[in-house]
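Typical record is below.
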Amino acid sequence: MAGHSQFKNIMHRKGRQDAVRAKLFSKLGREITVAAKMGMADPDMNPRLRLAIQAAKAQSMPKENIERAIKKAEGGDTENYEAIRYEGYGPGGAAVIVEALTDNRNRTASAVRSYFTKSGGALGETGSVGFMFDRVGEIVFPTKVGDADKVLEAAIEAGADDVVSDEEGHVVTCAFESLGEVSDALTKALGEPESVKAIWKPQTRTALDEDKAASMLKLMDALEDDDDVQNVFSNFEVSDDVMAKLTV
């Protein structure tokens, strides 16, 4: 939860919500298009598309945007995107996993490698840090849906594995394979979630000092800003004191 909360706070304090939201819609739309093109355009018959639409709705992506993304795949005029995962180490030895959808593998690999190098990190082979993470589903709800006990009860009933609640909201995790089913059950019980996505959850955390944390956050920003990058996950952790200094 720490890494999630810290990064969300940083993005908020930078006042980048609008730009980030526009880029997020673009990336969500790309995932919907790719999912629809790889399988059927009917989400009931295409688990990946169903999950992509759930993730888009959780971010309040307009219905017309979702429909446009699906129609783009049906028209057959979309680019051929390839899903690629990059793994490496950032500043201070923090592990990083990058998920991308690209129509030019060389361009994306070169860009991702440069971000790691400039930050003092290093891109590794696929699998070099993946063993340090678990592939799970994550569903985030705002505090307004209820207290911790209510959410925990709903999560247990839905078949989730864990719930972490704090002043920012409730984070429910479940098996990756059951993300769609658990999300549907929780939505019926609690209302619309803030986000629904498959994540790489770190098994352990790597604490960073002020200098390494500053470099790490620049690396995260660079990766998140790249149009080809869909998701970025890391096991870095920063103390509240250091975070306060970095966000002044």
Notes: The longest helix spans residues 17-38.
